[in-house]
């Protein structure tokens, strides 16, 4: 620089020489890789230095070597540089006198960290003076002291310190090249290097450019496996997935609104020449840049997921789903705009899928004739869900039932009211309608009236445990089942909420069971026997214990916890004792038959069951 340029560029705050230079170039400056805009970047040196020296020589013929220096005050001096300070040819050298509390910035490891974080993709080479240890072989003087004539000298390996400049930014910004120009191996290598994932290989990537209201380039990756930091906390704040660059200068990787949190696992870079280097969340929001970038990144991410799902090798999407399926479920819950795009990507186990996953589309393809809805149940594990009494009639009709076995599954599926033209229905809720016609509805009404005394008896016995008791025609093998009202909470969710309450210091009490509804099967012998017992003597302990035992069994098969296990155990033991007594009585009868003579047969003992 000349004296005038030193005064104009370094002596004035908020005077950007770079910006003036770009303007002087006019329209032809678009491809010039310069980043200064505000005239304050130079003064950031005083954050770590209490004095700055600049030695410079302009390319103009006859220009002298000049020295600009200033401490952290408001003045500066310009003088001729002496021979010891001179530099070869033209150029500029900056010397920072580091503050006592900033000595860490003299450590090569700290400088290397800063370069790799903020300037890894700057086009111009950045070199750092480093000391490295190398090893070389030299003659072993002691071992060779008695070396015989003609014998080959013995060597030893010794360490040697080598000091030299090492280029820090050898990794080139792959996203600046035209999409599809790089080879697959280049994309993979860039992912491993840029995201420090040498152990992982990306499953998919998307390289694209957007030109219009906002010009930016982006490169997104779907990891091959769940990043380590997300395995502990799926929304770990330190897991910086998408990096924002402006003209290859790293700006931030904590702009949460660039990507929704359900895409936390997607890695990538976004680079725009249109944004200022001091870009902030507020600036992005005001310029509407954030919304534009967000929409395009989400769209491209969904495209990648669909490509994996449609791959001929089905195992690829299974691997993706096992790693990242929970994020897509969160997307269904939180991102209403993209819910319909995400729904086809969901995978479930079902009553017919065995060990394989199924999807909504596959479920629809397998519907039986006349089926008009998609059915699901919630349960703790596939085995328990398959044994729920409420799906007996569904299985009898040949309907497939989706199995929601985790609390997150339940929240996710409740956010999906319909898929295409089919309603998505919870079979564990009251009022399940299998569209069996008016005759079935009439039959149900008649049965409710017929068993009114039994229903009333059970409602009294189970006061505080169930909301009401109804007769159901949906049960085939079970005597009774517990279902929830329209706003009730499944037993799986109840356990989850209880655990959360206890973890947060609550007492874990739950009132959701009051929403439960007991449905009874009028065709089952147990219900028919109980009805007779109620008619005969509803006040007897035997009748009441029988009713409570039926309720306990319905609770267990429905996935609920039996609150009073002591009373439950007593009722079971009482039943076992009565069965044992009955069997003993029967044996006594047989024995007496063998021993009694013909004249004794008239006085055989009576056995009461």
From TrEMBL:
Region named Disordered: 579-609
Pfam family, one: HSP90
Sequence positions that bind ATP: 1, 9, 16-17, 37-42, 92, 281
Domain of life assignment: Eukaryota
Biased composition (Basic and acidic residues): 590-609
Keywords noted in UniProt: ATP-binding, Chaperone, Coiled coil, Nucleotide-binding
SUPFAM superfamilies linked: ATPase domain of HSP90 chaperone/DNA topoisomerase II/histidine kinase (SSF55874), HSP90 C-terminal domain (SSF110942), Ribosomal protein S5 domain 2-like (SSF54211)
Membrane spanning residue stretches: none
UniProt GO molecular function: ATP binding; ATP hydrolysis activity; ATP-dependent protein folding chaperone; unfolded protein binding
Residue runs in coiled coils: 434-461
Protein family (similarity comment): Belongs to the heat shock protein 90 family.
Protein's UniProt name: Histidine kinase/HSP90-like ATPase domain-containing protein
Species for this entry: Chaetoceros debilis
């Amino acid at each position: 620089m000349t004296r005038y340029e030193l005064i104009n560029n370094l002596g004035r705050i908020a005077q950007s020489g770079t910006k003036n230079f770009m303007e002087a170039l006019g329209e032809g400056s678009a491809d010039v890789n310069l980043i200064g805009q505000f005239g304050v970047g130079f003064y950031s040196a005083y954050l770590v230095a209490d004095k700055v020296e600049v030695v410079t020589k302009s390319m103009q013929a006859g220009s002298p070597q000049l020295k600009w220096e200033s401490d952290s005050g408001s003045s500066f001096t310009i003088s001729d540089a002496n021979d010891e300070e001179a530099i070869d040819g033209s150029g500029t050298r900056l010397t920072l006198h580091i503050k006592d509390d900033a000595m860490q910035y003299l450590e090569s490891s700290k400088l290397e960290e800063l370069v790799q974080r903020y300037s890894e993709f700057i086009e111009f080479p950045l070199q750092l003076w480093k000391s490295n240890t190398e090893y070389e072989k030299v003659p072993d003087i002691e071992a060779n002291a008695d070396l015989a004539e003609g014998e080959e000298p013995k060597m030893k390996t010794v360490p040697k310190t080598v000091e030299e400049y090492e280029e820090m930014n050898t990794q080139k910004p792959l996203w600046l090249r035209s999409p599809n120009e790089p080879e697959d191996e280049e994309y993979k290598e860039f992912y491993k290097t840029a995201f420090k994932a040498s152990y992982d290989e990306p499953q998919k990537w998307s390289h694209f450019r957007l030109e219009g209201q906002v010009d930016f380039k982006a490169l997104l990756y779907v990891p091959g496996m769940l990043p380590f930091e997300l395995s502990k906390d799926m929304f770990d704040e330190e897991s910086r997935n998408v990096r924002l660059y402006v003209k290859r200068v790293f700006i931030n990787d904590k702009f949460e609104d660039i990507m929704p949190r359900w895409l936390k696992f997607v890695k990538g870079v976004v680079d725009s020449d249109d944004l200022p280097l001091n870009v902030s969340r507020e600036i992005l929001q005001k310029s509407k840049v954030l919304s534009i970038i967000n929409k395009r990144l989400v769209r491209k991410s969904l495209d990648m997921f669909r490509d994996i799902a449609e791959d001929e090798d089905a195992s690829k999407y299974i691997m993706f789903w096992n790693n990242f399926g929970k994020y897509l479920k969160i997307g269904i819950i939180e991102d209403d705009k993209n819910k319909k795009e995400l729904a086809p990507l969901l995978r479930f186990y079902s009553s017919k899928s065995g060990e394989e996953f199924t999807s909504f589309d596959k479920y629809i393809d397998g519907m039986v004739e006349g089926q008009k809805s998609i059915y699901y149940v919630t349960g703790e594990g596939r085995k328990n869900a398959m044994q729920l009494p409420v799906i007996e009639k569904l299985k009898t009709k040949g309907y497939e039932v989706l199995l929601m076995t985790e609390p997150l599954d339940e929240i996710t599926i409740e956010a999906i009211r319909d898929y295409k033209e089919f309603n998505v229905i919870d079979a564990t809720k009251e009022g399940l309608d299998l569209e069996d016609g008016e005759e079935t509805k009439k039959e149900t009404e008649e049965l409710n009236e017929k068993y009114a005394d039994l229903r009333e008896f059970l409602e009294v016995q189970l006061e505080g445990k169930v909301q009401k008791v109804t007769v159901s025609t949906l049960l085939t093998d079970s005597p009774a089942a517990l279902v929830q009202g329209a706003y009730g909470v499944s037993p799986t969710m109840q356990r989850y909420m209880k655990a959360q309450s206890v973890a947060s210091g609550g007492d874990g009490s739950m009132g959701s069971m009051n929403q439960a509804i007991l449905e009874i099967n009028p065709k089952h012998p147990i219900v028919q026997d109980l009805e007779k017992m109620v008619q005969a003597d509803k006040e007897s302990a035997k009748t009441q214990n029988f009713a409570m035992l039926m309720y306990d069994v319905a609770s267990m098969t429905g996935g609920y916890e039996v609150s009073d296990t002591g009373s439950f155990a007593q009722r079971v033991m009482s039943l076992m004792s009565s069965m044992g007594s009955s069997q003993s009585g029967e044996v006594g009868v047989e024995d007496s038959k063998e021993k009694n003579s013909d004249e004794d047969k008239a006085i055989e003992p009576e056995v009461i069951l």
